[in-house]
Every structure is written in structure tokens, then in C-alpha cells.
Amino acid sequence: MRFRWLLATAGLAAAIGTTVVAPSASAASGCWQDGDGSRYWCNNVSGAPVYGSIGNSRLYPDPNRVVGTMFSNPSWFYCKLDDQAWVGGPHPTRWLMTVADNGAFGWMKDTAIYSETDPVRDCYPS
Length: 126
What we know:
alpha+beta; three-stranded antiparallel beta sheet; 1 helix; signal
């Protein structure tokens, strides 16, 4: 009897593992602008942390300080910032400026966003 239970459990785990697949960056559609072009909307992970800024300047994300959570999906983002703290994924140093659901200003890691974030404007154009 115990052997059957182990087989059933292993079969269930295998079935769950093969049906739950995270979207790949190459398959993701891009973020889109709202009607007036001031914000970009992107599909994101619900419950993702939003990080604060280093110091009071709001210019750079602080990967060590969570200021809120983003439960909404899709969510809006103002701009993107590259070449900052490592986050991984297809854009390994990209962060997006937003406001968490609690109203706190902050940054979200690119890895918490399913949509391709290339269409989002740069925070500091070169």
C-alpha cells in the first residue's frame, strides 16, 4: 500500500512540474503605453517587492530595502534604468521605476516583469 502512495505522489509531482511553465522573455509581448504616453503598462508577478532608492535622491534603486509590494497585474511603470545592481534575467541590470500598491515610490526588478521591457523609456536618456 505504501508503495502505491509513493508512486501516486511521484506521478502527481511530475504532472505538476510539467504543466507549470514560466513564460520566457522571448515569448513575452512588450509593455504598452497608456493613452497620454506618460506611463507604460506591463504584465508582472503579483506580490513582487518594490525596492526603495539609495538615499533621498530617488535616482538609483536600493536592492537591500523593500518599501512595498506590487499585487496589481498589469502594473504601470514610468521608466527603466540599466547598469545598476544585478537582478538577473534577460536584462541582468534593469530596474523599472514605479509606485507600489501602498503608495511608496520605488523600483521593481526586471525579473519580476513578464512583458518585454525594452519599449519602456529610459529614465536618464543618453
